[in-house]
Design goal:
Blueprint (H helix, E strand, L loop, with lengths): L6 E6 L7 H14 L4 E6 L1 H8 L6 H14 L7 E5 L5 H10 L4 H5 L2 H9 L8 H4 L1 H10 L5 E4 L8 H14 L7 E4 L27 H8 L21 H9 L2 H12 L5 H28 L2 H28 L9
Parallel strand pairs: 1-2, 2-3, 4-5
Helix pairs in contact: 3-13, 3-14, 4-8, 4-14, 8-9, 10-13, 11-13
Length: 335
């Protein structure tokens, strides 16, 4: 089958402006895939409620910021369908129907269920919404009869529950859904300013559309080689945060030069931070300028979601008609 006719589905929770971890981990791949597949990308606002149900007041602005940054990064609504999860009510209907056939122990055994509960101790996550998020995630994917879901190699197991649910559903009602396959994509690890994984919960991020002054200020706080105490000490780029960012943003010649000059103490950490900040600022300039254009005309975001929602509902409606017929709850007499 021609890849341009195959559907790729992916989504992210609306957490506000995209940071470099989001960009290199997902958004950059989304932009590349839109030229090769039929792509459906959604803002998972219902998923945001699984942990933030007590205060959803920030979801709207976070949705706008996320989509604005997607578009600034190169996502083209003429090529990809970009939409809001809650704007397609079929997600909820399919989630409900899948809950009728999914054994409870399947959800309880998901490793991330207990992991997230431990990490978010300040929130009451003893809700069905939190337990059932993998089921909603499955509905998100199979509602569009997606052939592929972009994942890193370490995330392939996350799809296995969805595949099990599809097999169980098809065993009961016939071959309604294809089993979604992982589409392995390059997802380089992006360290935060402090060396840990870049995450808003750690407060160690650099925004994809941050201003030049913001980038300089943030880069100046980056952890460097802890063993390099004095300017004259040789450094080790392999354990330095700055060098990891050079690998993401700098050309090969600059990477080689910085590697050599760091090991021979020809460049200091402060000097390297200034160099890195200038490189990041210049590389992100087109994205930043596009975001500024969108901020001057915010209807671009809402028009994108409105049109994307129409296309998504059309595809979702076709799927749900097949589901109802297969489950013998279609009631054609009422149509």
């Amino acid at each position: 089958m021609n890849s341009s006719s195959q559907i790729v589905l992916s989504g992210l929770r609306p957490t506000g402006r995209v940071h470099l971890g989001n960009y290199f981990g997902a958004v950059r791949n989304w932009v590349e895939l839109q030229d090769r597949y039929r792509c459906y990308y959604f803002v998972a606002d219902w998923h945001a409620l699984t942990s933030d149900y007590a205060d959803p007041s920030k979801v709207r602005q976070a949705t706008f910021d996320a989509v604005a940054d997607y578009l600034a990064a190169g996502m083209d609504p003429e090529k990809a369908t970009v939409f809001l999860q809650s704007d397609v009510k079929e997600h909820a209907e399919l989630h409900l129907l899948l809950s009728m056939v999914t054994p409870l122990p399947w959800l309880e055994r998901v490793p991330t269920f207990k992991d997230q509960q431990a990490q978010l101790e300040d929130k009451d996550l003893n809700t069905y919404g939190f337990l059932g998020y993998p089921l909603l995630q499955t509905a998100d994917i199979i509602l569009y009869r997606a052939a592929y879901v972009p994942v890193g190699e370490d995330q392939a197991s996350h799809l296995e529950l969805s595949r099990e649910i599809v097999r169980r559903f098809n065993n009961f009602y016939g071959p309604v859904f294809p089993e979604p396959q992982p589409l392995f994509t390059a997802t380089p690890k992006v360290p935060g300013l402090d060396g840990r994984k870049m995450s808003k919960s750690y407060g160690n991020t650099i925004g994809l559309t941050a201003s030049a002054d913001e980038i300089r200020a943030l880069v100046s706080t980056m952890f460097t080689d802890p063993n390099r105490v004095r300017r004259s000490d040789p450094g080790n780029p392999d354990i330095c945060n700055l060098f990891q960012f050079h690998k993401l943003f700098s050309d090969d010649a600059t990477i080689a030069r910085v590697d050599h000059e760091c090991r021979t103490a020809q460049i200091g950490c402060v000097q390297d931070k200034r160099l890195l900040a200038d490189i990041i600022i210049e590389k992100l300039r087109p994205i930043r300028e596009r975001r500024e254009e969108i901020d001057r005309n915010p209807s671009i975001v809402w028009d994108t979601l409105r049109e994307g929602g129409k296309r998504a509902r059309e595809r979702a409606g076709e799927t749900m008609a097949s589901v109802r017929d297969a489950m013998k709850i279609g009631f054609p007499e009422l149509r």
